[in-house]
Amino acid sequence: MKTATAHCRSFFADTNRASIDSFQPQADIWVKLRNRPNDYSDDEALLMCETGAGGWLGWVPGFGQIALQPGAFYRLV
Hints:
- It contains no helices and five strands.
- With 77 residues, it is an all-beta fold.
């Protein structure tokens, strides 16, 4: 397992080979949010980098930058 850091790190996922059960969040992939940040935002986020707290920094269309905790999102199918 990767150690979380406060610095952004880019990792490119090969999502074609990964099964849904083995999904590991990585930077530069789109995920589905369990809850929208507001009524006007999208329900998907682009993961930008892992944070020191084990969460992720993401970007949501119609909202902007957001801190996401594990369990707040899942892999797009």
